[in-house]
Design brief:
The structure holds two protein chains of two kinds. Chain A contains no helices and eleven strands. Chain A is mainly beta. In chain A, strands 2, 4, 5, 6, 9, 10 and 11 form a seven-stranded mixed sheet that branches. Chain A is globular. The chains are: A mainly beta, B mainly beta. At the A-B interface, strand 4, strand 5, strand 9 and strand 10 of A face strand 6, strand 10 and strand 11 of B.
């Protein structure tokens, strides 16, 4: 089944404790993105990747890191999480620049 | 500035009513892509439609229709004869070329009451 998977789905952590949210797609898509969703703000793009080893900032990259060492995986790293990073995070993938995105199920992160 | 505005935060209708969700965008690019996504109460994001900037044809898919007007920078979405299952948050999004930057609107929450 074609899909984007994210893990974990729920995470509660404390300020400053490094964490990684994994994202994997099995559709051989070139493009991948991370978004955060906050009430009243819609989805805001954190980082995106256009291919292996090619990543770029979205609108809200501060406090986040990404890497794209393999085509299928695009992990999101929070080196030192803070409470303002409490949010719902979505990973997405797309075949081409002009195609729609397929979204993962979301990861709800709470930073205490 | 690149921007997407969904001015309607929440809309409430009664089943079988028609409803239009507005989307206004700003971009300097001449080539861009517009999208609508649906987020039902279960939380997943579902793709509805894509439109290229050079294709102004309106589209109809069952009870859904989209009106793209470059002259007013709008890409509005109409649901005809709404149903309870249409209750969701709807997002409009803009992607411009030369990268993969994608801007989403804040979303419109639609309540359809039986």
């Amino acid at each position: 089944e074609a899909q984007v998977t994210q893990n974990p789905r729920y995470l509660i952590t404390v300020t400053g404790k490094k964490l990684t949210v994994t994202c994997s797609q099995n559709m051989n898509h070139e493009y991948m993105s991370w978004y955060r969703q906050d009430p009243g703000l819609g989805l805001r793009q954190i980082y995106y990747s256009m291919n292996v080893e090619v990543t770029d900032k979205g609108d809200v990259p501060e406090g986040y890191k990404v890497s794209r060492k393999e085509k299928r995986n695009f992990p999101l790293i929070l080196e030192s999480p803070s409470p303002n990073q409490t949010s719902l995070y979505f990973c997405a993938s797309s075949l081409r620049e002009y195609n729609e995105q397929f979204f993962g199920p979301g990861t709800r992160l709470t930073v205490l | 500035a690149q921007k997407v505005t969904q001015a309607q935060t929440e809309i409430s209708v009664v089943e079988k009513e028609d409803v239009t969700l507005d989307c206004v965008y700003e971009t300097r690019d001449t080539t861009y892509y517009l999208f609508w996504y649906k987020q039902p109460p279960s939380g997943e994001l579902v793709f509805l439609i894509r439109r290229n900037s050079f294709d102004e044809q309106n589209e109809i898919s069952g009870r859904y229709s989209w009106n793209f007007q470059k002259s007013t920078s709008s890409f509005n979405f109409t649901i005809t004869a709404s149903q309870v299952v249409d209750s969701a948050v709807y997002f409009c999004a803009l992607r411009y070329t030369g990268g993969f930057k994608t801007i989403f609107g804040a979303g419109t929450r639609l309540f359809v009451k039986a």
